[in-house]
Design a protein that fits this description.
Helix content is 0%, strand content 44%. The protein is built from no helices and 8 strands. It has a 5-stranded antiparallel β-sheet, with no helix packed on it. Strands 2-1-3 form a 3-stranded antiparallel β-sheet, with no helix packed on it.
Length: 81
């Protein structure tokens, strides 16, 4: 799994080095597999299954209650606390 983390204040996901590039906070935590996330701007919620080639693969349920895995860019995701 690549080194992705999330900001505890604004909950944005990215590969932060020292601080959050969105809100300049220093409270950065590591993103783990099976963590709940939300796609920003949608009502889509799912869980992180794997991170590969700077894409986060999310497992979520569609309208027909089927499990779907879809890759998203980390910049479009937000951690659910």
């Amino acid at each position: 799994m690549d080194n992705l983390s999330y900001c505890a204040d604004c909950r944005r996901i990215d590969s932060f080095n020292e601080g959050c590039s969105f809100c300049q906070s220093q409270s950065i935590k590591k993103l783990v597999v099976n963590a709940p996330v939300n796609v920003i701007g949608t009502k889509l919620k799912g869980r992180v299954m794997k991170v590969r080639d700077n894409m986060v693969h999310i497992l979520y349920m569609d309208e027909e209650k089927n499990r779907v895995m879809k890759p998203f860019e980390p910049i479009k995701l937000q951690k659910i606390l």
